[in-house]
Amino acid sequence: SQADGAKVQQYSCNGTAAQGLTLVPTSGGAYNIKFASSGKWADVVETSFQDGGKVHQWSCVGVTNQEWFFKD
Predict the structure, then answer these.
(1) If you ran DSSP here, which 8-state letter would residue 7 be given?
(2) Pairing state of beta strands 41-44 and 55-58?
(3) What CA–CA distance (Å, rounded) separates 37 from 54?
(4) Number of alpha carbons in the 13 Å side-chain half-sphere of residue 20
(5) Biggest alpha carbon distance in the chain?
(6) Would you state the pLDDT for residue 20?
(7) Overall pTM > 0.85
(8) What region does 5 belong to: left with phi over 0, alpha with psi -120 to 50, or beta?
(9) SS3 for 35?
(10) For each of the chain's 72 residues, which pLDDT tens digit applies?
(11) CA atoms within 13 A of residue 57's CA, in its CB half-sphere
């Protein structure tokens, strides 16, 4: 989907462009996750901090709910 608000879901690897992404570093040590097929960013819906919070894709708007940290 190219639409803002399209859901992000886990799916078995199938080698399509829909599963391609780029990690874009931010100045604060976080990353934005940019989807190859739409050019949109992974975005936590309504900036939820709850277990089970939903993730969708959204245009880049430079907000913290589009920033991701990775830990070992």
Answers:
(1) B
(2) antiparallel
(3) 20
(4) 7
(5) 33
(6) 94
(7) yes
(8) left
(9) strand
(10) 899 999 999 999 998 888 999 999 998 999 999 999 999 999 999 999 999 999 999 999 999 999 999 998
(11) 20
